[in-house]
Specification:
The chain is mostly beta strands. Helix content is 12%, strand content 48%. The strands form nine sheets. The protein has an eight-stranded antiparallel beta barrel. A three-stranded mixed β-sheet has the order 3-1-6, with no helix packed on it.
C-alpha cells in the first residue's frame, strides 16, 4: 500500500511539473541585430523593456529601432510558431532607407500621376504612400483621387523596382466605354451580426473591406450561424458602394412557422361564428396574430441628443411614443434632426423592455490625444488623431498615430455603422499576402471619444477638423 501511495504521489508531482513546461513552450525568442549596434530598440505595445532573445507569445509586436542622427525604423513583427531573428540597418538622415529582414526582399514603387497634385493611396497596407516606398513582392490596390477628376482604382503587381504613369480623367470630360470599364470602385459591406462571412460568387478573389471592383453586377452571399443566409445581386455603377445588411435570426422564422401551423390546425370544422373568426385570423398578417410565442408586449424608450430629435418606426404603423408597448420582433428605427445626419438602425425586442440612448453626430468629428511614449530621457511623444466622417448611418474613420520627434506615422482606414450605443468599425490589415480583419469600437461623449483599438483603450479629446480628408 505504501508503494502504491508513493507511485501515485510521483505521478501527481510529474503532472504538476509538466504543466508549466507546456505553457513555457508557447513562447518564442526574438532577437534584433541593429546597425549601428548601440541603436535603441523598443517594443511599444508591451510593458517589458526589450532585451535580446527575450521570449514572447505568438502575436504582433510594434518594433522601433532609432538613434540620433539616423532615420528611425518602425514596423510590425509577427511571431507565429518559431523564434524570429531580424537584422535592421539604419542609415544616416538624408539617405534612402534600405531595410532588410530575413522574410523577403523589397522593391521601390514610383507612381507618376497627371495632375501632379493628385492624392495616391495604397488601400491594402497601413503605411502612407510615398514615392519610392519599399514594398514586398505582391499585389497592391492603388486609389488615385483629385477633387476635379474622377477617382481611379488600379491594382499594381510589384515583382521588382516598379514605375507606372497614370492620367486621371476630368469630371467634365465624357468617358468612353473602354475607359469606364477600366475604372474600379471600392465596395464596403457592413453586416450584422459581427463576424459574418461574405462571399462574392462570380469573382475568384476573397472579399475584403474596400476591395476595388469594376462596374458591373456581383453575386453577394452573407452567412452567420443562427441567422438566415442572405444572397442577392448588387450593381456597382460609377462610384464607391457602401452597403448595410442585417441578417434575420432563424428563431423569428421558426415563430412564423408556428403561426402557420396553428392556422392549419384552426381550419378544422367549427361553428359559424368560430369559422368567421378563424377566417379573419387566417387572412391577417403573421405579425398581427397572437400566439404563445408572440403574445407578450414590452416597452420601448429612446432618449436622444439633441433632445428634440424626431423618432419614427419605419416598419410599424403606429406613431412612436415614449414607453410604447411592442410585440417581440425587429423594428426599423429612424432618428432625425435638422443639421444632423439621419440615424437608421434596427432594434430587436425579445423578452424584456428596451431603453436606448442615441446621439446624433455632425457630418464630421475629429479627436486627438498626446501622451508620453518613452522615458523622460528621450522625451518621445505619441500623438493620435481620429477623423470620423458620417454618411447617414455609415461611418468612415481615419485613425493615425505619429511618434515625435522622429515623425514616424501609421495610418488606418476603417468603415462601419453607427449603432445605438457605439460606432462599430472594421478594416483590413495585411500580414504578408494574408488579409485579416481589424476591429474598433468607439463611444462618443460630449467632448471626447473613447476608442477601443487593437486590444487597447484610448481617450481622445474633441478638436476642430482639418479642411483636407487626409
Amino acid at each position: 500500500m505504501r508503494v502504491l501511495s508513493s507511485y501515485l504521489l510521483a505521478i501527481g508531482l510529474g503532472l504538476f511539473i509538466f504543466q508549466p513546461l507546456a505553457q513555457a513552450a508557447q513562447t518564442y525568442r526574438l532577437s534584433v541585430k541593429a546597425i549601428p549596434s548601440n541603436a535603441k530598440i523598443t517594443i511599444w505595445n508591451i510593458k517589458t523593456p526589450f532585451k535580446q532573445n527575450m521570449r514572447l507569445a505568438p502575436g504582433r509586436y510594434d518594433l522601433q529601432v532609432h538613434k540620433a542622427g539616423y532615420k528611425a525604423y518602425r514596423g510590425w513583427v509577427t511571431i507565429k510558431n518559431k523564434s524570429r531573428h531580424i537584422k535592421i540597418k539604419l542609415l544616416p538622415k538624408g539617405k534612402q532607407i534600405q531595410q532588410k529582414n530575413n522574410a523577403a526582399n523589397t522593391y521601390p514603387l514610383h507612381v507618376n500621376v497627371t495632375p501632379a497634385d493628385a492624392k495616391v493611396q495604397v488601400m491594402n497596407i497601413m503605411p502612407k504612400f510615398r514615392q519610392g516606398m519599399d514594398l514586398k513582392p505582391g499585389s497592391y490596390d492603388l486609389k488615385i483621387s483629385h477633387p476635379k477628376y474622377k477617382t481611379l482604382y488600379k491594382t499594381v503587381r510589384v515583382k521588382s523596382s516598379t514605375k507606372i504613369g497614370l492620367t486621371l480623367e476630368s469630371i467634365d470630360a465624357s468617358a468612353t466605354e473602354n475607359s469606364i470599364e477600366k475604372l474600379k470602385f471600392a465596395l464596403f459591406i457592413s453586416a450584422l451580426p459581427p463576424g459574418t462571412e461574405i462571399i462574392i460568387w462570380n469573382i475568384k478573389q476573397p472579399f475584403y473591406q474596400g476591395m476595388p471592383l469594376e462596374s458591373g453586377r456581383y453575386d453577394i452571399q452573407i452567412t452567420s450561424p443562427g441567422y438566415k443566409m442572405r444572397r442577392r445581386w448588387i450593381e456597382i455603377l460609377d462610384h464607391d458602394l457602401y452597403l448595410g445588411i442585417n441578417l434575420e435570426p432563424i428563431a423569428k422564422r421558426e415563430a412564423e412557422a408556428l403561426v402557420l401551423a396553428q392556422r392549419k390546425k384552426q381550419a378544422e370544422p367549427a361553428t359559424n361564428t368560430a369559422k368567421q373568426a378563424l377566417k379573419a385570423n387566417a387572412e391577417a398578417p403573421i405579425s398581427h396574430i397572437a400566439t404563445p410565442a408572440l403574445a407578450s408586449h414590452y416597452r420601448l424608450t429612446i432618449q436622444t441628443q439633441p433632445q428634440d430629435a424626431h423618432i419614427a418606426l419605419l416598419n410599424h404603423e403606429e406613431k412612436f411614443d415614449q414607453g410604447m408597448l411592442l410585440e417581440p420582433g425587429a423594428y426599423h428605427l429612424s432618428v432625425s434632426q435638422k443639421g444632423y445626419p439621419t440615424r437608421l438602425q434596427w432594434v430587436e425586442i425579445k423578452d424584456k423592455p428596451i431603453d436606448l440612448n442615441i446621439t446624433l453626430s455632425q457630418k464630421q468629428q475629429c479627436f486627438y490625444s498626446k501622451t508620453a511614449a518613452g522615458s523622460a530621457e528621450n522625451r518621445t511623444q505619441m500623438t493620435r488623431l481620429l477623423h470620423l466622417q458620417f454618411y447617414g448611418n455609415i461611418v468612415e474613420a481615419l485613425y493615425s498615430t505619429r511618434m515625435l520627434p522622429d515623425g514616424n506615422a501609421t495610418r488606418f482606414r476603417l468603415f462601419g455603422k453607427q449603432q445605438a450605443d457605439a460606432i462599430h468599425l472594421i478594416g483590413t490589415i495585411y500580414y504578408g499576402k494574408e488579409p485579416a480583419e481589424l476591429h474598433s469600437r468607439i463611444h462618443l461623449e460630449h467632448d471626447r471619444a473613447i476608442m477601443a483599438f487593437d486590444g487597447q483603450q484610448y481617450i481622445l479629446k474633441t478638436m476642430k477638423c482639418p479642411n483636407s480628408n487626409s
